[in-house]
Write a structure and sequence with these properties.
Largest sheet: none
Number of strands: 0
Order of helices and strands: HHHHHHHHHHHHHHHHHH
Shape: globular
Distance between the termini: 25 Å
Oligomer: single chain
Strand content: under 5%
Number of helices: 18
Structural class: mainly alpha
Length: 421
């Protein structure tokens, strides 16, 4: 089978891609047998399994196959965003909305400012390069943190705060990147193009309107006397339609799918629908993280050098310091102040998409360096991020530590990726 996976070139008309998907699922499952013994979250196991079977290790998945699986990322991120939307109830936001926005701005912009200044003054990179790298540093990947929350059955105000912050975080990153992109263009041409600023903003606003519209459609379509199978089929169809519309506009589906979930839950939708969608998406999320590991270009870690290592560490420091400061100003409980920053370390998804855009705005050499730093450090974040998120959940008291309560949580959530999965 190994030799067969390495043969064949026409992915569209051969079973090779299907066998690779099977190999990824097997690899992700078996690697969690090891990470479980090391008391690491499942997400870490999935990413490590991708590194092992990827093109720079065993080579069971080649670069050509990886390039044909980008749709897995879009689908996984769309369902993640949809699930996050359920936590944006108007009643809850009235109580904590101002607090959430304040903390989000502090943790995201602190990371952006520290990364920008360090890249320019310590490594003497140009302002355009430093600004774009800093803007991308705003983003936080919600996928691994959310899966870690699900795995350990974490609940409470600390978890609700995390989910709301990671959902808003990407909005801040998109806006910051649009502004920095305009500055970069002005530095090269001497003028600022209104289109460069307005186009992504208008497209994202349009996507948000689509999310609202599809939320009403989802409510009317599924909240009637339908079977579980038909409810799930309609939900998947609507999420995929919205994701496809965002892809056609070349924007991330995160914001629109988050609005979809928020709109649905606020107009009287049922939380059971989110549980059903979660059971469907679990294998796709496994593939998403295995692919993330397979994309790790091991030689590029040497290319990024000291700048890549500095970005990796400085962004962590910025996230933690910003979250701590924001929580102090918002007067949250002390465990939240101390441990929230640990849950905001992962970075992938949106940051990788922004890196591709930034690469086109910069000269070839520096554009490639920016992409290399984001790709390599992003995957390293995804490896250590779940472990840090797990620590924050336990240390903050969001996870019941006695085995009986954990077993009860797992039994009540059979569709989720549990610690024994």
């Amino acid at each position: 089978m190994l030799s067969f996976l390495k043969l064949g070139t026409n992915l569209a008309h051969s079973p090779k891609i299907i066998l690779m998907l099977a190999a990824m699922l097997f690899a992700g499952f078996f690697m969690t047998r090891l990470t479980k013994r090391l008391h690491l979250p499942n997400v870490t196991g999935y990413i490590l399994s991708g590194v092992v079977i990827g093109p720079y290790a065993l080579g069971l998945i080649d670069q050509d196959a990886i390039s044909h699986m980008d749709f897995v990322n879009d689908i996984a991120l769309a369902f993640i965003a949809f699930g996050v939307g359920q936590y944006f109830k108007v009643i809850t936001l009235r109580k904590s909305g101002r607090q959430v926005v304040s903390i989000t701005l502090w943790e995201s912009l602190a990371a952006a400012v520290l990364v920008t200044l360090s890249m320019h003054f310590l490594f003497r990179f140009s302002w355009p390069f430093s600004l774009l790298l800093g803007a991308i540093g705003c983003a936080t990947a919600p996928a691994s943190t959310i899966m870690t929350i699900q795995q350990y059955g974490a609940k409470g105000p600390f978890v609700d705060l995390i989910l709301q912050i990671v959902a808003l975080d990407d909005a801040v990153a998109l806006i910051a990147f649009s502004i920095c992109a305009a500055v970069v263009q002005a530095s090269g041409t001497g003028v600022v193009s209104a289109g460069l600023i307005l186009k992504p903003i208008l497209f994202n606003l349009l996507a948000l309107l689509f999310g609202l519209l599809f939320g009403f459609i989802l409510h009317r379509a599924v909240d009637t006397d339908r079977s579980v199978q038909h409810r799930l089929a309609l939900t998947i169809a609507i999420i995929l339609a919205l994701t496809g519309a965002c892809a056609a506009m070349d924007i991330s589906p995160l914001l629109s799918c988050m609005v979809l979930g928020a709109c649905y839950i606020n107009i009287g939708g049922s939380k059971n629908l989110f549980d059903q969608a979660n059971r469907f998406i679990s294998p796709v999320l496994l593939l998403f993280f295995v692919l993330a590991g397979a994309r790790l270009n091991l030689p590029s870690l040497l290319t990024a050098g000291a700048a890549g290592a500095a970005y990796f560490l400085i962004r962590i420091g910025g996230k933690y310091l910003g979250a701590y400061t924001g929580c102090r100003l918002a007067k949250t409980e002390k465990p939240t102040q101390q441990f929230l920053g640990l849950a905001l370390i992962p970075q992938a998804g949106v940051s990788i998409g922004l890196a591709a855009l930034g690469q086109r705005l910069l000269p070839n050499e520096t554009g490639t360096l920016l992409s290399t730093i984001i790709l390599s450090s992003g995957l390293l974040y995804e490896i250590i991020g779940p472990a840090c998120a797990k620590a924050s959940l336990f240390w903050s008291g969001a996870v019941e530590t006695n085995k009986a309560s954990c077993a009860k949580t797992e039994a009540a959530s059979p569709g989720r990726l549990s610690p024994s999965a």
